[in-house]
């Protein structure tokens, strides 16, 4: 069972978490939204889901308890459990331009495609859900400041093509969005990009992770390495299975039956999806090759 998380909790002198109250298989106890800063106007990271009546009173309580207001909103990625609350927050707090809602841009080729969590974004240009108000698009390395907090944008694709983590310089802490969770592992669209993102976050050597879901992580460097090791272990098992097949191309499901020997058969289809992510990464690495019909591909070790 997912760890219990208070509806509102002060995590440090400059970070307060307000739980999104939207529990589920992918959201654990719910989306973590964060109020960041020490001054009278603070940054909100992520907004939870739409249609959650208890979230707005909690957000208001957290702000009123310190006599603060919202300076701007930062969004880690496009999933509805992170952007869904924008419109309700805008109305409830009577926000108005030039109040900013900022994120990294999506890869245009990804618009309209269903992702690993089954979410399908609307076709066309991204919208905030607030009429006449668009996103302010950030770039990697951009710095967002408020009193008591300096946040640096880190491009961390893999979970989604627009995923952004944020380095809180004053604490050497990372708001990881869904790149790293407080417990368990996350899903991803592109494993090749995802592994690069994990390596990038490891390079910052953070002390703390404030995740998009689940409890905070105190030994952040160890947690990131655990994520990397988990994926590397699975990749090694897949390569070992392909070596047994020698140069004969095999399907993802055939690999599943060799690697997931202790997994119930009714979960093999899901496991095949996971294996396929690894196979696409290994193609990008140049380690294996893809053969046959794109709708039913087979894979074999590269001859190079």
Query: Could you tell me the number of beta strands?
Result: 14
Strand percentage: 15-25%
Mean pLDDT figure: 92
Low-pLDDT segments: none
Total helix count?
Answer: 7
Structural class: alpha/beta
| Radius of gyration from the alpha-carbon trace, in angstroms | 21 Å
Strand order of the largest sheet: 1-2-3-4-5-6-7
Task: Explain this structure.
By secondary structure, the chain is of the alpha/beta class. Helices cover 28% and strands 21% of the residues. It is built from 7 helices and 14 strands. The strands form 3 sheets. Strands 1-2-3-4-5-6-7 form a 7-stranded mixed beta sheet, with helices on one face. A 5-stranded mixed beta sheet has the order 8-9-10-11-12, with no helix packed on it.
Short description:
The protein is α/β, with parallel strands linked by helices and 304 residues long. The protein has helices at residues 55-64, 80-83, 86-92, 191-204, 220-244, 252-259, 268-285; strands spanning 8-12, 15-19, 32-36, 41-45, 69-74, 100-103, 136-137, 143-146, 149-155, 164-168, 173-177, 208-211, 288-291, 298-301. It is elongated, with a radius of gyration of 21 Å.
Provide key terms for this protein:
304 residues; alpha/beta; 7-stranded mixed sheet; 5-stranded mixed sheet; 7 helices; elongated
Topology overview:
Blueprint (H helix, E strand, L loop, with lengths): L7 E5 L2 E5 L12 E5 L4 E5 L9 H10 L4 E6 L5 H4 L2 H7 L7 E4 L32 E2 L5 E4 L2 E7 L8 E5 L4 E5 L13 H14 L3 E4 L8 H25 L7 H8 L8 H18 L2 E4 L6 E4 L3
Parallel strand pairs: 4-5, 5-6, 6-7, 11-12
Antiparallel strand pairs: 1-2, 2-3, 3-4, 8-9, 9-10, 10-11, 13-14
Helix pairs in contact: 4-5, 5-6, 6-7
